[in-house]
Amino acid sequence: METILLAGYELAVVLAATLAAFALVRAHARSTRGRPARLALVLLFAFYLFGVVFVTGPLTVYDLARYGFEVNPRQLNLVPLVSLVQAADVGDALVGFALNVVLFVPLGLLLPLAWPRGARALPVATFGLGLSLLIELSQLFNNRTTDVDDLAANALGTLVGFAFYALWRDAVRRPRAVRGKHGGFGRPDPSGIAGFRSKDAPAFSLGAPRPWRALGEPAFYALALLVAHFLLYDELGFAKLLYGF
Q1: Residues contacting residue 160 through CB under 8 Å, at least 6 positions apart
Q2: Burial class of residue 199, CB neighbours in 10 A (0-12, 13-18, 19+)
Q3: Which residue intervals define the domain VanZ-like in the entry (predicted)?
Q4: By residue range, what is the domain housing residue 139?
């Protein structure tokens, strides 16, 4: 029960930050005639990011109060693949690498689905790499391991997710293009996604069509969420209240 309460506390912080950020995005969109993503998709993105922070445990201000800014060199690896080669159990190390890949696969799917104008491999992969880098850097100061292999695995996972999206997009486009060619239902949807017309594609930066700028909205949500988690989530303090130690 206590574990559920701890997870609920962390989820509440994540959702509160996301909803506050969404309100700001909507207000900005009204003044600029932009079109933010649907709330349901934003909440799905928030639940996914909750899963990421729940698993990875990024830095909080309370961690800094306990551990300070001291970096343990033994918990830092900047040499690619060395943690796999030198692992006591290579099988376990490979499983860990694979799990880091799997962790970011949903990100590669969610970003182009919710923000179609950002549906390009390089911007999506860069988003995944940037999110992973923020988390890995924060783990320098909270007694966790920071590993360049985790960055590579997360970026690879994002690309795998985008590849799944691209396969699905092409599968949707093909029958629509055939119908349009034979005069059945007109030309295919330019967004390539059933149910998402190009005018519905969300954009945070004044409705700009460029893929890099289109991902500004989810980047804002992710940053707001991480900042709120940094300031408001005190796992040990809440555990003390629950367990009375």
Answers
A1: 101, 105, 108
A2: exposed
A3: 45-168
A4: 2-243
